[in-house]
Amino acid sequence: MSIMEYNGGSVIAMVGKECVAIACDLRLGNQALGISSKFEKIFPVTDKLYVGLPGLATDVTTLKELFRYRVNMYTIKEEREIEPDTFAHLVSSTLYERRFGPYFIEPVMAGISTTPGGKVKPFIAATDLIGCLNFAKDFVVAGTASSKLFGVAEGLWEPDLEPEDLFETISQTMLNAVDRDAYSGWGTMVYVITKDKVIQRTLKGRMD
Amino acid sequence: METSFAITGKGYTIVASDTTAARSIVKMKVDEDRIKVLSSHLLMACSGEPGDTIQFSEFVERNIRLFQIRNNYSLKPSAAAAWIRRSLAQSLRSRKPYSVNLLLGGYDTTSHRPHLYWVDYLGTMTEVPFAAHGYGSYFVLSLLDKYHDPEAPLEEGLAVLKRCMDEVAKRLIVNPSAYKIKIVDKDGVREIEL
Amino acid sequence: MARRYDSRTTIFSPEGRLYQIEYAMEAISRAGTVLGVLAKDGVVLAAEKKVTGKLLDLSGGGYGGSGEKIYLVNRNIIAGVAGITSDANSLVNSARSAAQGHLLSYDSDIPVELLAQRICNMKQGYTQYGGLRPFGVSLLYAGYDEQHQFQLYHSDPSGNYSGWKATCIGANNGTAQSLLKQEYKEDISVKDAIGLVLRTMSKTMDSTTLGSDKLEFSVLTVDEVTKEPKAKIYKPAEIDALLEKEGLAKKDDDTVMAAA
């Protein structure tokens, strides 16, 4: 039994055309026993940046609170909101601080930034549990269903998807991947982030 | 092993915990109260390592009381739960972690809503409509999936609770002899017999 | 010998006074005015800027307020400071840390009085522990929490704090307080409180005209839909617009000349 699989749960993020999407499942378990079907693993960082924290559930809450603390301090002192790539490095260094006694979480980030010229830049990234960053151009996955998510995403994802198409792609990827994973599922939550709004939807999934 | 469970309903949370204190195969005590009253509208059922449960629950009880004396108001259930969870999460990465599993039942007097939190010794916390710890949880959770109603009046809630206790009595190899049952609602905490 | 009892903060004079504390308060009563009014649906805070001039670069700042005197401490608390600005910066930093520390422990916003207490504990320490100078700062805290709704507190260099319906610190605070005493009404609304604050400010400030170069302004309310606290620190352009609306805007000298 791996500690990363103790509570179950998965997160995926994808890049679209001037938009990004991030999705998580809603299960919280104690190994095979399901405890909650409303355990969200994605949290807002700013209104254009979200972070997903799959892994050991105690660390999901601990890190959610720790990132909120550090981002709030950054925002109030810097007098501006944190940029996605800056936040990625904050995540990385926070995890590496615990290099020899890590948080059992593999964070996934998705956000968009606007360049001074007004160009919209989609951003996704993921790290391992000690903060090794992976900036991807297509999609990133993490959690107990990560191997299955890779397979489905590889088949469904294509470049430059519009927000609604990206929503459909990420939703189908998530729903179908978690059905092959005993430790993820029990509903899905999807966020699609565009330059002027965030679409948040909760999807029903198989409850077995 | 000890069993405790809790359910929420319309304006109340019921917390029940068996009263057996056992060492190995021997029952040492059959009237142990495992449900601490933390404040006027907050209950905490503790199970786990015997020494740890007492030490940790008293630590929590005193700290919640200290906050109340210092600041002249009680922490609302969500804030108390967050603090208790953090204590467990910090303990987990210490030299000797507490092995204590908790159910926190409360009534928020500002928003007038009942709350129930499932917390384990790792510091995992989630708000749920019903929850259970111990071997009894394997029977009780599936039963509550079918019969629990978050809008049920108190009588119905107690009837469902009775069902749970009967099911544990029927299926679990060691039948808990008695339960302590406490209710928290707008009027505060009270203990009942079923 | 007059200097015997005022060179150190920790020593009482024979009359039982702590001179350094009194000097600190004296420093504050020369500082720019900060004025707060508690309304039934919000709190209003305004401050007079002392450092002005057309060469001053006002382009910086934005999120926590652009000025020198009004700061966002937490999403539910705004602080207005009077006294030595550098001392205030360090206190505001501590206040922000305390607020975020509370959020980390309890997953809820820090209650306003608790924050005031935390800062006062720190201020009090410097009246007792050796060799250091006390903070030369008074603060007004405008805040909201679920337990006691809207609140307005004042704290001074000795570490005393008290709650107020309307109060004022800094230069001319006596005049402002007597004006507030006359004009304050129970159950005042935020809308009326804004007017009251601006009128009082315009009467107590050294300069005759009000403008964003001399004034900082902020309002704390609760969002009607989400019920979450909403702290708004006005930007210079918004202050001018507000003054215009209240009929207290700066008279344009050229027009006056032309009319004459």
UniProtKB/TrEMBL annotation, chain A:
Keywords recorded for this protein, A-Z: Cytoplasm, Nucleus, Proteasome
Gene3D superfamilies noted in UniProt: Glutamine Phosphoribosylpyrophosphate, subunit 1, domain 1 (3.60.20.10)
Entries under PROSITE patterns matching the protein: PROTEASOME_BETA_1, PROTEASOME_BETA_2
Domain of life: Eukaryota
GO biological process terms held by the UniProt record: proteasome-mediated ubiquitin-dependent protein catabolic process
GO-annotated cellular components: cytoplasm; nucleus; proteasome core complex, beta-subunit complex
Subcellular location: Cytoplasm; Nucleus
Function statement: Component of the proteasome, a multicatalytic proteinase complex which is characterized by its ability to cleave peptides with Arg, Phe, Tyr, Leu, and Glu adjacent to the leaving group at neutral or slightly basic pH. The proteasome has an ATP-dependent proteolytic activity.
Summary of subunit composition and partner proteins: Component of the proteasome complex. The 26S proteasome consists of a 20S proteasome core and two 19S regulatory subunits. The 20S proteasome core is composed of 28 subunits that are arranged in four stacked rings, resulting in a barrel-shaped structure. The two end rings are each formed by seven alpha subunits, and the two central rings are each formed by seven beta subunits. The catalytic chamber with the active sites is on the inside of the barrel.
Family, similarity comment: Belongs to the peptidase T1B family.
PANTHER family, A to Z: METALLOPROTEASE TLDD, PROTEASOME SUBUNIT BETA TYPE-3
Protein name stated in the entry: Proteasome subunit beta
Species in which this protein is naturally found: Cylindrobasidium torrendii FP15055 ss-10
Lineage, highest ranks first: Eukaryota, Fungi, Dikarya, Basidiomycota, Agaricomycotina
TrEMBL record, chain B:
Family matches, as PROSITE patterns: PROTEASOME_BETA_1 (PS00854), PROTEASOME_BETA_2 (PS51476)
UniProt record similarity statement: Belongs to the peptidase T1B family.
Transmembrane feature ranges: none
Superkingdom, natural source: Eukaryota
Entry keyword Amino-acid biosynthesis: no
Function: Component of the proteasome, a multicatalytic proteinase complex which is characterized by its ability to cleave peptides with Arg, Phe, Tyr, Leu, and Glu adjacent to the leaving group at neutral or slightly basic pH. The proteasome has an ATP-dependent proteolytic activity.
One GO CC annotation: proteasome core complex, beta-subunit complex
Main location: cytoplasm
Upper lineage: Eukaryota, Fungi, Dikarya, Basidiomycota, Agaricomycotina
Coiled coil (UniProt feature): none
One of the protein's GO biological processes: proteasomal protein catabolic process
CDD domains reported for this sequence: proteasome_beta_type_2
Subcellular localization: Cytoplasm; Nucleus
Name recorded for this polypeptide: Proteasome subunit beta
PANTHER family: METALLOPROTEASE TLDD, PROTEASOME SUBUNIT BETA TYPE-1
Record keywords, A-Z: Cytoplasm, Nucleus, Proteasome
Self-association state and partner proteins as the record states: The 26S proteasome consists of a 20S proteasome core and two 19S regulatory subunits. The 20S proteasome core is composed of 28 subunits that are arranged in four stacked rings, resulting in a barrel-shaped structure. The two end rings are each formed by seven alpha subunits, and the two central rings are each formed by seven beta subunits. The catalytic chamber with the active sites is on the inside of the barrel. Component of the proteasome complex.
UniProtKB/TrEMBL annotation, chain C:
A biological process from GO: ubiquitin-dependent protein catabolic process
Keywords: Cytoplasm, Hydrolase, Nucleus, Proteasome
Gene Ontology MF annotations: hydrolase activity
InterPro entries hit by this protein: Ntn_hydrolases_N (IPR029055), Proteasome_alpha (IPR050115), Proteasome_alpha-type (IPR023332), Proteasome_asu_N (IPR000426), Proteasome_sua/b (IPR001353)
UniProt entry tagged with the keyword Zinc-finger: no
Leader peptide range in chain numbering: none
Protein's cellular compartments: Cytoplasm; Nucleus
UniProt KW NADP keyword: no
Gene3D superfamilies for the chain: Glutamine Phosphoribosylpyrophosphate, subunit 1, domain 1
Any one GO cellular component localisation term in the record: proteasome core complex, alpha-subunit complex
Location (main, coarse): cytoplasm
Domain Proteasome alpha-type subunits per the UniProt entry, residue ranges: 5-27
SMART domains: Proteasome_A_N
Assembly with partners or alone: The 26S proteasome consists of a 20S proteasome core and two 19S regulatory subunits.
Function comment: The proteasome is a multicatalytic proteinase complex which is characterized by its ability to cleave peptides with Arg, Phe, Tyr, Leu, and Glu adjacent to the leaving group at neutral or slightly basic pH. The proteasome has an ATP-dependent proteolytic activity.
Family statement drawn from the similarity comment of this UniProt entry: Belongs to the peptidase T1A family.
NCBIfam families: PRK03996.1 (NF003075)
Protein name: Proteasome subunit alpha type
Species annotation: Cylindrobasidium torrendii FP15055 ss-10
